[in-house]
Amino acid sequence: MTSAALDSSAINLSYVLHEPSTSVEVQRACKKLETQRTRCIEATRRFAKMSDAGLSERCVTLAEIDGAAIREETHIQFISLRVGAWELFPRLARLAGIVEPNATLRVDFLDDPDAGTLSALTFFRAAASLNVSERATGIGVTYFVAAVFRPDFKSILVRINEIDMATVAASDDNVRWEAIRTLAERTIREFTYQWSCPRALWRQPAEETLLEFQTRGNGTIPCGR
Questions:
Q1: Could you report the per-residue pLDDT of 45-73, keeping only the tens digit for each?
Q2: Is 224 or 182 the better-scoring residue by pLDDT?
Q3: Average pLDDT over residues 78-86
Q4: C-alpha atoms less than 13 angstroms from C-alpha of 99 in its C-beta half-sphere
Q5: Hey, how many other C-beta atoms are within 10 angstroms of the C-beta on 11?
Q6: Residue 67: count of CB within 10 angstroms of its CB
Q7: CB-based contact 79:144 (threshold 8 Å)
Q8: What digits encode the pLDDT tens for the residues 201-211?
Q9: Does residue 135 contact residue 117 with C-beta atoms inside 8 Å?
Q10: DSSP collapsed to 3 states, the chain
Q11: Maximum alpha-carbon separation in the chain
Q12: Confidence band (pLDDT; 50, 70, 90) for 166?
């Protein structure tokens, strides 16, 4: 891992693990993340070479959605993260019968490094630079998805949650984002070492942003570190 990549991972993991970026815990996590990242890349390549029938047999889907309704949609947007088998998701969604073969899929990754427009939003309790399109936070139905490897890396778990924006007031951006944030944070916490985030989402590490890490005048630290 390059120094820049290590710095980015350390910054991100300081928020996820709630530890200083320079701590032993975060440094160990960075090394484990790099090892698992290589394993995810190799597994993705292996699964990508499989036939549709073979891949279908290795895919388990947990969908908290209205299946009939989503299959009627011709243009569908998903929000996701670069976690696990993220590159295979469009194919996995079709093989699982979640969407019709001719439906147009759009997947917006919150941690996309090449997004044209990034927004400053609260993520793990601090302002982060995230890719969230206007459509994702607008009125209508949006889906949050995560395609992750199961522990033995021999099968893939696809989780889909429906976020019904129609129940949220059009002017309440915070509430709309909260629905997405909760699912995204849960996914990263559960599959931390499958998270292949290519950039630092925060400008500074957690110890320079979150109040509980700040030292008091007597040199003590509120969170006990």
A1: 999 999 999 999 999 998 887 666 677 77
A2: 182
A3: 95
A4: 20
A5: 22
A6: 12
A7: yes
A8: 999 999 999 99
A9: no
A10: CCHHHHHHHHHHHHHHCCCCCCCHHHHHHHHHHHHHHHHHHHHHHHHHCCCHHHHHHCEEEEEECCHHHHHHCCEEEEEECCECCHHHHHHHHHHCCCCCCCCEEEEEECCCCCCCCCEEEEECCEEEEECCCCCCCCCCEEEEEEEEECCCCCCEEEEEEEEEHHHCCCCCHHHHHHHHHHHHHHHHHHCHHHECCCCCCCCCCHHHCCHHHCCCCCCCCCCCC
A11: 65
A12: low
Mean pLDDT of 137-146: 69
Place of tokens 């969407």: 99
Say yes or no to pLDDT of 169 above 50. Answer: no
For residues 148 and 84, the answer to whether their CB atoms sit within 8 Å is yes
Q: In the structure encoding, which two tokens stand for residue 30, read together?
A: 């960075």
First and final CA of the chain: distance in angstroms? 28
Is the backbone of residue 156 left (phi > 0), alpha (psi -120 to 50) or beta?
beta
What is the total residue count of the chain?
Answer: 225
- Return the closest-CA partner of residue 71 out of 180, 162, 151, 10: 162
Backbone angles phi, psi at 158, to 5 degrees: -110, 120
